[in-house]
Amino acid sequence: MYRNSERFLTAFNRIEKRMRSIINSGRNIGFSKMVRMLKNADAVVGQYSDDLLEYAELRNAIVHNKVNITFSIAEPHDSVVEQIEWIEKE
Fold first, then answer.
1. Using an 8 Å Cβ cutoff, are 66 and 72 in contact?
2. Phi, psi values for residue 24, rounded to 5°
3. Which residue range is the domain that position 53 belongs to?
4. Structure pTM?
5. CA-CA distance, 37 to 45, in Å (whole number)?
6. What percent of the chain has pLDDT over 70?
7. Of the candidates 68, 67, 80, the residue with the CA atom closest to the CA atom of residue 5
8. How many domains does the chain have?
């Protein structure tokens, strides 16, 4: 069974990859900047932009504060994981 943090990161990474393909830029643009760029150009990003920006902060907390494989500083609530997976499907 996967932990919520693993499910969250998987959905987050897929959303990030999709936004990169929409922008189609060779530059390395951060997730939050991509959300702001696509907010008015993509209906799904626009609808969930506030959530996506919050999820970017959560993602950073999970990834950048990980000190070993069994510990994550933040473990997303089930509802957060379900919401980001919903956004990914949209």
1. yes
2. 55, 50
3. 4-89
4. 0.88
5. 9
6. 91
7. 80
8. 1
Radius of gyration for the alpha carbons in the chain, expressed in angstroms and rounded: 13
Res 82: pLDDT: 97
Angle at 24 between CA 63 and CA 53, to 5 degrees: 40
Structure tokens at 34: 């991509």
3-state secondary structure the chain: CCCHHHHHHHHHHHHHHHHHHHHCCCCCCCHHHHHHHHCCCCHHHHHHHHHHHHHHHHHHHHHHCCCECCECCCCCCHHHHHHHHHHHHC
Residue 69's pLDDT band, with cuts at 50, 70 and 90, is low
